[in-house]
Amino acid sequence: MGDPVMSQYDVHLFTDHLVVYERENGLPKIITYRLLAVWEPLKSLQSGQSVDFIDPVYSVDPSEAQFSSSILRFHYNSMRTPPSVYDYDMNTGISVLKKIETICIDPSFKASRLSLLDRGFIFAIAHIRGGGEMGRQWYENGKLLKKRNTFTDFIASAEYLIEKKYCSKEKLCIDGRSAGGLLIGAVLNMRPDLFKAAIAGVPFVDVVTTMLDPTIPLTTSEWEEWGDPRKEEFYFYMKSYSPVDNVNPRVMYSEPAKFVAKLRELMTDDNILLFKCELDAGHFSKSGRFERLQEDAFIYTFILKALNIIPASASGHS
C-alpha cells in the first residue's frame, strides 16, 4: 500500500495540551500534544501521543471539556462495543471508562417465532437486574460483585411463570446469547430441575480464564462490567458463578466446547446435549436472511424434540 491518506477534522485547545482529531485511511484517530511554553517552536508538536482503542474499526467523537483540564472526554462506539464515554488523562495516557450504555431487551416482532406460537408456545422476556430497563441502579445491581442478582432474578422469573400456570418445569425452555449464554449456563448449574431445554448461543461460560487474559479482545474493557479477577475478591466471586467452574454436584469458540465436554463427562441421563459450531457465522449468528431462518429452524427443531412434540425419527423428513 502507498502512504496513508491523512486528514484533520477537529482541534481542541487546552491550557497545557492541544488535541487533534484526524483520520488515517478513513479511520478516526486522536492525537494529543503537550504545550511546553509559548516560545517553543511549532515543530515540537510533532511528537504527539496517540490514544489507543480496543477495536480495529470504530467511531469516536469529542465531548465538551474544560479549558484548564488535563482530561479529554470522548464518546466511543463500534460494531461490538456499545456507545461509551471515556476520560483520557493526557498526562498519563490512561483511558478510564466512565459510562457505557445499558442494553435493554425490548419486545420486537420476529416472523419465524410464529412457528412456535402456532404450536401453543408462550414467548416471554425476563427483564432482570443488569439490564437497563429500570434505570441506572437496576443496571448497577447486576454487575461486578452483584452479578449473581442477574441469575437469581432469572430463576425468580421462571418460578413466577410456573406459579401463574403459564408453563411447567417439564415445558420451560430458555435462550440466551453471548453474555446471555453465561446467564443460561449459570442458571442451569444453579437450578437444573427448573428447565426442560436450553439454548446458549456463543456463550461466555469460562469467565475467569477469559477475564484473566488481557490479550483477548474486549477483556480489559469488560473489567468495568465483570471485575478484574487479578483481584482476589473478584476472582472468587467469578468462580462462584462461572458455568465451566460449576459443572458438578460473549467468547472464544473454546469456551462452549470446554463447557459441553465437561457436561458430557458428568451427565447421568440420556438428554440431548448438542454442540453446534458455526465456522462461517459471526458473533450474532449468520447475516443472510435465509441463513438466519435456517438457524432459527434448527433451534426450534431442537426445542420441539426436547419437548417430545415431534419424534426424533422425524429429523430426516421435511
TrEMBL record:
Its EC number is 3.4.21.-. Residues 8-98 form the Peptidase S9A N-terminal domain. Keywords: Hydrolase, Protease, Serine protease. The keyword Protease applies. Residues 107-308 form the Peptidase S9 prolyl oligopeptidase catalytic domain. GO terms for biological process: proteolysis. It is an enzyme of class 3 (hydrolase). The keyword Flavoprotein does not apply. GO terms for cellular component: cytosol. It comes from the Eukaryota. GO terms for molecular function: serine-type endopeptidase activity. InterPro entries: AB_hydrolase_fold, Pept_S9A_N, Peptidase_S9_cat, Peptidase_S9A, Serine_Peptidase_S9A. Belongs to the peptidase S9A family. Serine peptidase whose precise substrate specificity remains unclear. Does not cleave peptides after a arginine or lysine residue. Regulates trans-Golgi network morphology and sorting by regulating the membrane binding of the AP-1 complex. May play a role in the regulation of synaptic vesicle exocytosis. This is Prolyl endopeptidase.
